[in-house]
Specification:
Helix 7 runs antiparallel to helix 9 and helix 30 runs antiparallel to helix 34. The protein is elongated. Helices cover about 40% and strands about 15% of the residues. The longest helix has 25 residues. It is an alpha+beta fold and about 950 residues long.
Length: about 950
Amino acid sequence: MWGEIAYQLYGAEGYEELKEYDQNRTAPGQNKLKDLFDIGDGPALVLIDEIAAYLESASAVEVGGATLASQTLSFVLSLLETASESDDVTIVYSIADTAFEEEAEDVRKLIDELNQIGRRQHKTVTPTDESEVGKVLQHRLFEDIDDEAAAEVSQSYFQLYSNSERQFPQEATDASYVDRLEREYPFHPTVIDTLTEKIDTIPKFQRTRGALKLLARAVYYRWNNRPDHYERHWVRLYDLTPADDAPSGSISSTLHESLFEFVDLSSAVSADIYNDDGTAHAQLEDRKWTEKGIPELGSHLTTAVLWHSLAYGEQATGLTRAEMNETLGHPDVRFDNYDSALDALAGSDMSVACYYLYDEERVRFKSDPNLIRIIDQRVDNTPDAQARSRFEARLESETGTGAFEPVPYPESPADLPDKASTPQLAVMHMDTAPVTKQLLEDESNPESVPEKVQSLYQKSASKQGGDVQSRVYKNYVLFLAPDDERVRSAIDEARHLEAIEALLDGSQQTADLSGDQIEDLKQRRKEKYGLLGELVRGVYRHLYYVDRDGLTHITINATEANGGTSLVNAVEETLDDRLIRADADAKGVAFFKQKLWQRTQDSMTTQQLVEQFGKKPGLPYLLSTKPLRKTVAKMVDESGYTYWDAETQIAYWDGDADDHPENWRKRTPFADSPDVRTSIQDTDVKIGNDYVIYTGIEALLDVHHDSIRPPEASEVECAEDGCTTKVEASDDGPAYCEKHKKTPEKTRCQSCGEKYDESELNAQGICPDCAQPSGWDTATSQMAASRAFNEVRTHALSKAASGGSPGVSQVTVEVVGEDRLSKGSFIAQRDAFTDRSDAVSVRMSYDVKTSTGSSYSASYQGSLDDFSRVTNQPDPFGESFNVTLKFRVDLDEPEPITDAEDDVLAELQAGLGQTNIDVKVQARGPTEVPSEATQ
């Protein structure tokens, strides 16, 4: 430093005076400096600018055991003392020590020491006061200012501030403000104030020099990016735009490299004010205005707020609405437009809502994002389909499991199976069967049943696109439908949860959040998750179940029990008095006879009893078969019913050893048979089509007499008087030993008179030669298919000649009862008919009449194959209708009726015996077929 000063003062001669000190980097003393100043003939002025910056660099240069900085301080000390003793020497130095506040500690000490030296004999000079900053900026940045334009614009804006209904700072409406506007033109005073009063609070920012640098860039950038659709009267605060992002020296680089070191708003700039992609929120807001020929209000507003937010200190940041009006106001732009832009950016429009902007008492940016706004914006950008998908996924988990089998979103009859195994709970889709307020108030629909629910209740189908039939097990379908008014709030909650989870899963987004904000998000997620479940359960509050008169509507509550109640649980609680659980007692006789038993039947399988619960509207829901098995055992023990186990060939009967059923054709007691049990436990009862309940023992024996073995023979003494030989007892009369066995007496044939063993004669006492084959013919009244075919076969067998087998040559089956066509369609598919399709013909007629005289008729006569393509019965539309349907089998060769049970009657009995189909049967055939035909 001292060598340079000497050279600049006195050239080579001056440098030679201090050359040795300069080269050795040792400070010259006071005497040496007097010799230097003696070289000159007149006054000397030494100017040292920003000595702190020099000291910072010199502190890194070692000189002996010290540094060049310490030598410099010694030099300055000597220089100042020399100058204080001379009237011809003046020393002027500048030091902005705040610019180096965070430098190394040793540099600060040097600055402090220098200040102490300077206070010995010095005068502090401020180059410019606050009122002169504008003039300095004008002089440095512009060659010429149009004073007339300045006066005109200043007066115009003062009138804007004075006459507007808007609020402005007090200064802006004082008469003296016109002079300031004119004095600082073309810089708006709000720009100067912000830079000198707010930005100046940031360490290292130099009021005049820093402002000059920033405004030079602002003027440069605006000159090269002039708006073409409105007049610019001032250089505004929003002209210091981060859009000026050149690699160096730009406003953006100044912000990021210097100002953001103390108030980091870099994320706020990129997210909310400006980014290269044009997706910052202010840029998105700009487009809404520029399309209308209005300036970029979003960028104007956010950029102005940015500079006010850079102040160092909580109380200094941000600006009031009055200050914003002054900062942004323009005669050609309505203040209402700025209000709208601010409202949108502050959160009223989530597509442009800023993350870091806080619209509080003072509008400002903060380094921590506004969590609520971020969530709301993410919510607004979450697609409706995504929210609905989340709702549906949550509905699946909230439905739960239990007594009822959930069936999600049935749309067609095939989606909701027609079965009696388990009660089904159809959970209807929000768009398929919403329960609206209008539906609830519809007087023509007292139970408020949605159309889709009613349709699924009535109809069923075995497969998609298959024939639609009337639902059989109507009692076992229940429906949960959504409340239309509650769906939207639940979907909105799902949207919020999706948004929060997306924020937590997005590393880029969470990087901008503080630890407390992330914890806040996690707590919100937990709360939203619980609330969504409660809302979903609250949506599905309309339950439709079957009562005696059809579907009944009731409102359920699934939001109790601390949120732990699933929808299935809630339905169970609502219908608890209609549930038959495993621990239930046996039902009484009245319930069994009136509710379960088919009055026209002599027998029912236990499977049919189970199916009754699904068929009969209003019956309880059988959740376990144990109570039913208890009931069956009770009916056998107390009410005269009998039970047949076809699997074990055992009959259960509440009889005594002395009881002898009328149709038990054995001499030994029925109760003594090894196939008979006179007591029964519920564990003996099984569920299926092989386990049959009969109204009494006679009904059971009519079907299973020959399957029940007679009591096991016991040894008795020979019936010959005086003989004690033990022989097996006989059901046919006295038993004799071999010695006394009687020769059977011959019996005369009632026709020819010849003698035969009694066993050789038929039931009419006719011998084989006289008993010529003849035909049999019989018909039944309306009865269950099993009973009808059994009676026909029994009749045919009773007409058979001794030792021969009857045959069947023709069978006519008339379907009676309800749903004749659907039952006929079922019959037509049985193997008994399809295996003999060439021999089967069908006749059908269908007639309907209405009260208005309208009628409809249809008929069919043809083959079995063609009948299978006839459509099912249409929905009834008249007050009376009649259906006649008959199947006829004409066999070219009679089929033998034998124990092999492969005749058409036996196969029809097997195929239809376990159904609830009623028929009338006519059949005929020979009483005997040739023996070779039975082989």
